[in-house]
Amino acid sequence: MPATIETIDFNGQPALALATQAGSRAVVSLFGAQILSWIPAGSEERLYLSPAAVYDGSTPIRGGIPVCFPQFAGLGKLPKHGIVRTRPWVVGEQRTGDDYALVTLRFTETDETWAIWPQNFVAELTVVVEGERLDVELEVENTGHAPFAFTAALHTYLRVREVENARLEGLYGHEYRDSADHNRIRRDSGDMVVVEDETDRVYHDVKRPLLLRDSNRNLGINAEGFPDVVVWNPWEERCAALADLPANGFRHMLCVEAAAARQRIELDAGESWAGRQSLIAL
């Protein structure tokens, strides 16, 4: 059968279910334009979605790929991770081909967001599933009459079988800010990143693709437009303090996020910016 896009109910939230003829599937929630599931063709679930996640609209959904905009984390005066991940987006485009399915969700400023961040903007998230590949692109346009600046991220929660056995390659030699250790600046000197404790790092100016080795399966990770890579795992103590994560949740997730965190992106009136993260099941 050809690729399909269907409107579904996902734990009480409206969502779009994408499926291709080859068997790749994804679920995208209209709440926050958040990808909640991605199953590559011939494979299994590759995103971590917390079994304790809340879907009543009062809080962000824990897991998947949340959109952080116009602020990443607490790096500014706005709410943590910005203002769009807890608001409804609208469907802008749906398109299917012989071997792909594509949706674009759109968010434009509201009176509510203006009260928090007084800027005119349009944010669009485009999701494409194709074979063993997931492409996620965030585009931001300044529709106002004055410049503005922002930070952003695709806060990707990857599902791993056991985080202590996972290996992330490609960050050797890169400088990073270690948020788990008083924001100290360090340089990665290992061949791979191994998570054995709380990990919260922002790697700078990452231009090469990454490879996540997880038992007998691999995942290629590539970003365009996003200069930084965030690697995050809350580990046991912080995980226990998060009500929407099970006590052992940290063992089965690793966030590898495409981000613009160290330096703000500046847009003049009428300008736009786009950043993309591609995941490829290997």
UniProtKB/TrEMBL annotation:
The entry's keywords: Isomerase
Top-level taxon: Bacteria
EC number: 5.1.3.15
Family annotation (InterPro entries): Aldose_1/G6P_1-epimerase, G6P_1-epimerase, Gal_mutarotase_sf_dom, GH-type_carb-bd
Pfam families (alphabetical): Aldose_epim (PF01263)
Family per record: Belongs to the glucose-6-phosphate 1-epimerase family.
Name of the protein in its database record: Putative glucose-6-phosphate 1-epimerase
Organism (species): Aromatoleum toluolicum
